[in-house]
Amino acid sequence: METLGALAILVAFCLAIYSVVASVAGAVAKRPYLTVSGQRAVYGIFILLTVASGILVYALMVSDFRFAYVAARSNRAMPAVYKFAAWWGGQEGSLLLWSWLLSLYSAVVLITNRRKFRDMMPWVTAILMSTQIFFLTLNAFVEPPFQMLAVGRGITAVQDGQGLNPLLQYWTMAIHPPTLYLGYVGFIVPFAFAIASLITKQPGDAWIATTRRWSLITWGFQSMGILLGAGWAYAVLGWGGYWGWDPVENASLLPWLTATAFLHSVMMQEKKGMMKVWNMVLVSATFFLCIFGTFLTRSGIVSSVHAFAQSSLGTWFLGFLAIAITLTVILIVRRLDYLKSETQLESVLSRESSFLFNNLILLASTFAVLWGTMFPVLTEYVMGEKITVGAPFFNKVNIPIGLFLLLLTGVGPLIAWRRSSWDSLKRAFRWPAIMFVVAAAASIAMGSRSFYATICLGLCAFVTTTILMEFYKGSRAIAGKSEMNLVRAAIELTHRNTRRYGGYLVHMGIVIMFIGFSGAAFNKDTTREVTIGDRFTMGPYEFHVDKISDGDNPNYTWQRAEIGVYKNGQFLQELKPERRVYLVTEQPTSEVSIRRRLNEDVYLNFAGMSQTEENKAVIQAYIFPLVSWIWLGFGVLMMGTAVCLVPSKARILASKAEPVSEFAAEKVLAG
Amino acid sequence: MKTYVKFGLVMGAVVCTLAWLAVSGINESKTYYKTISELRSDASQVGKRVRVTGDVVPGSIHRDGTKVHFKIIEKGHNQLLDVTYTGKDPLPDTFRDNSQAMADGKLSAEGTFHASSIAAKCPSKYEADPNKHPADVPLNGGKPSSI
Fold it and tell me: The whole model's pTM is what?
């Protein structure tokens, strides 16, 4: 069976090479049968990699410890879901997942576009499959997932595997890697479309619409992946942080930032024919940062708490990146005439320039994060001494950037295209500005002593007001005309221009998340050594230690504290923080216990038994205000993304009737 | 053209502010990677922000209120370093005997290292006891994987 798996990867590797050759040859020589065979090869690769992945997963599920991978990543006592998740629990399996997802994406792209972009699709196929060749090279020759152990050849059988890293045995961790990978891998598709459009000098902007759609979908997955990682860190690592500027976290943030920039600036290209070169650069940079991110995670070049295996993969990734970047730059330079801007920037006070600022800021953030992440590597090369920068650096640069972006989120949508007058700005921003002052004053009155948190809460009120005003203006116009109530009118409004109002919903999600971030300025914590019957207080809460117990099951042993949480003498909830030691890996983990509420989370961590006093448990208690808003805001963000993907009613009507221009439809909506 | 000049000025102001923030951020938080023997042999390291790595000496971890004391050793040099952890965050779960610890902090004049943050990796299973799982070495010479 393992031979079949390895064979499937090898054949897929050959098919990928064939697909690239056939697609390019077919496109150049105008032989449709060649390009079609190249596309069929893509479907073939998907089937083959599905078989290979299926075999690996099957081996994991039945605990077939002849497989080196299974023995190293799984053990018998692990619940089935984590046996499955062990697919991406290690280097080889992750790379196989990467290839499999890429083959899945490629197949979906070809199916959904089978009747469109005839001249461009062969190139899209070729670019997707070139990347596939690279990853299959790693799968087939560098990190093969189907290595077998020497069982049955004079050596005793492996009784049990080593188990998945216990820190990964948590539900968000089980789905965090694949969603993040869906994001990482997905950004190849917009890149492939952009490059193919350059090669074939696509006229018009039909391909942009497709590219934008794909970018949005992958952007959604990437956001989800990042947030699941944050949620995991919060609930598992025991110190209540959701973001630590760890190299691997940064790696996932980098392409997200450039993709966000692209999603905004591509509007300039669609509506104004501007920034075409810039957009090409952004799409390419996003893709390269995805590869770079995979490289950072997989090569262990920067030491990280994620602590993945050190390996020789680095050279392969750098080689691939070098080739890809060189080819892209040459192509963009040779197509500069095709990418010429159709209009000019007219005023600093315009929607156009707010987009430019948005891009500048996002790029600055990308650069700062990249710089900080690579600082140890850079200083070692340049100065011969390894120097690292920590969270203070990232926070110092990125908090102002984040606040400035938040401001733009409110300002951008209200500024007119082309040019705006100060007078019209004053009128548009009167209420938002008032709300800013009110919210900032309120947060100071409530005891905020942090400058950034105060500004942040003020800006959140500012942006919320602008978004509500936009919805209100549009819905009132519709409600007046068609006798609907405001709520129905708002839904109708959103449906008529899903991109615009879905975008506002995404912004609203970001605002809610920022409210959650600002809560970090008000965190409280305390560490106590307690025994049964002890009581301690923190903030308005009182904690009663009711019970400290221990026990075991086949997977781990545990110690648990049961602590009653009281406020103003009233019982609220029993929290049960736990400490586990997984038997196979002998690694302890904390299972924190959290009382999640919108205003604040109460968070208890069982840090261990005291080493100085018998029978005393070390309990760390935290209050995290507003953290739940982050997850809530993320929900709104995902909803907004989904709305953006629904086709607009106006556009459907317009395309059915005569070709009414999009601008006319939007003018009507803008009222 | 005037528009572009104005625009350029605003952009320049933004970029300069960020660059200034970045430089001061780097100066505030830059940390040098040092080995234990480098720390021991160079008196000028006292008081500087340093990151030092070593293996946790078995049995040396003990808790004293909110502080945690332990020793780390540099492999091959047999240089020991006393570390006192004074940070707020709980120690990582991977931190235990024999694990590879990475401590950020400052060396005091008395020779104790005051760490404000600790990161740790599990000891490699393969190094710890090569005879435990004889069948774990792949046949075709591939290197063993580690978490």
Answer: 0.86
Residue A138 is given by DSSP the state I
Whether residue B63 and residue A396 make contact (CB cut-off 8 A), yes or no, is no
Question: Which of B3, B63, B135 lies nearest to residue A346, judging by beta carbons?
Answer: B3
Residues 6+ apart with CB under 8 A from A598: A626, A628, A629, A632
Predicted local distance difference test score (pLDDT) of residue A256:
95
Domain of A550? 522-628
Per the domain annotation, does A602 fall within a domain?
yes
Beta-bridged to residue A477, according to DSSP, are none
Q: Is residue A289 part of a domain?
A: no
Nearest CB to A388; choose among B21, B33, B138:
B33
Contact assessment for residue A78 and residue A154, using Cβ atoms and an 8 Å cutoff: no
pLDDT of residue B130: 31
Measured between CA atoms, the residue of chain B closest to residue A357 is B11
Tell me what ipTM this predicted complex has.
0.72
- Whether residue B112 contacts residue B83, with contact meaning beta carbons closer than 8 Å, is answered with yes
Question: d(Cα A384, Cα B32) in Å, to the nearest integer?
Answer: 11
Q: Give pLDDT tens digits for A96-142.
A: 999 999 999 999 999 998 888 888 899 999 999 999 999 999 999 88
- Least Cα distance to A318 among A262, A374, A384 occurs for A374
Does A397 sit within 8 Å of B18, measured CB to CB? yes
Residues A607 and A458 in one domain: no
User: Residue A416: inside a domain, yes or no?
Assistant: yes
Give the tokens for residue A135.
């990853």
Task: List B residues 97-126 in contact with A (Cβ-Cβ < 8 A).
Answer: 102, 104, 117, 119, 121-122, 125
What integer pLDDT is reported at residue A551 of this predicted model?
87
Q: Which of A101, A5, A76, A241 is nearest to A584 (CA)?
A: A76
Q: Is the pLDDT of residue B144 over 70?
A: no
**Buried-state track A429-457, b at ≥16 Cβ within 10 A, e below 16:** beebeebbeebbeebeeeebeeebbbbbb
Q: Are A506 and A646 in the same domain? A: yes
Partner A contacted by B130 (CB < 8 A): no
When divided into structural domains, chain A yields a total of 2
Domain with A575 in it: what CATH number?
A: 2.60.98
pLDDT higher than 80, residue B3: no
Asked if A579 and A497 sit in the same domain, the reply is no
Mean pLDDT across chain B: 73
**Contact between B93 and A69 using a beta-carbon 8 Å cutoff:** no
**What pLDDT is recorded for position A651?**
56
Task: Give the pLDDT score at A440.
Answer: 92
What is d(CA A640, CA A467) in angstroms, rounded to the nearest whole number?
A: 13
Q: Are residues A510 and A526 in the same domain?
A: no
B interface mutation test: which of A94, A388, A395 has the most B CBs within 10 A? A388
Averages of pLDDT over runs of 10 residues in chain A (671 residues) are: 89 95 92 91 96 93 86 83 86 91 94 85 94 93 83 60 74 82 91 91 80 91 92 81 85 93 88 84 93 79 50 79 92 85 75 85 92 85 81 88 92 78 81 91 85 92 92 87 83 87 93 92 85 88 89 86 90 90 77 90 84 76 92 94 85 50 47 39
Residues in chain B within 8 Å Cβ distance of A368: 18, 22
Q: Hey, are the CB atoms on A353 and B7 less than 8 Å from each other? A: yes
B4 CB within 8 Å of a chain A CB: yes
B40 vs B32: CA distance, rounded Å: 15
Whether residue A506 is found in the same domain as residue A585: no
- Do A499 and A406 lie in one domain? The reply is yes
Q: Does A402 share its domain with A509?
A: yes
